[in-house]
Request: fold
Amino acid sequence: PGNTEYVQWDADPTNTNSFMVEYSLDGGNSWNLIAASVGADLRCVNWTLPEVSVDNAVVRVSKNGDTVFGESNMYFSILSRPENFVASTICEGMIELSWDSVNYAVAYQILMNNGNEMTVIGTTTENSYIVYDELEFGQKYWFSIRAMNQNNQFSERVIAQYGIPEDIETCPWEDDPIAEAIITSTVGREKTQKELSAEEEVS
Reply:
């Protein structure tokens, strides 16, 4: 949505009729004008995609003053980019990504910059995702996302945002214990005389 695409068609080289170009967002039940009178010698027109998300769009080209017309031979999708994309540090070494849901999206791909390109690191059906694998404290990591529809077609990626994992103690969950070390001077082995009891003190 918002991008400019080219609508192209073929016609008889000797054609003298101008063309009308239209699009439909409901499978051809209703039509909207792209251009009312394209020159008879032209075979393309620019179209700024509307700010919508649909999966049954159609384009039609008609000869003005004639009954001849042609439509795209299959439906195509227009899928909006997710909005309000944010990367936040939420817990020790974790980055949470969040965004607004997109109509007709069935999932979202998560991408992270690996130094040369954005690569896919996960997929979710939710509108948030937590990244926590092997993130170094103080390192800047860039993330992006894109919506996916039921036909496995993707929206454009959102503008990348960065997050910096930090060594912080506050987390959004009520219970989030971290075991830094377990130290005991008692050694035991299960199913032997040295088996430890459930009440064995660990300090």
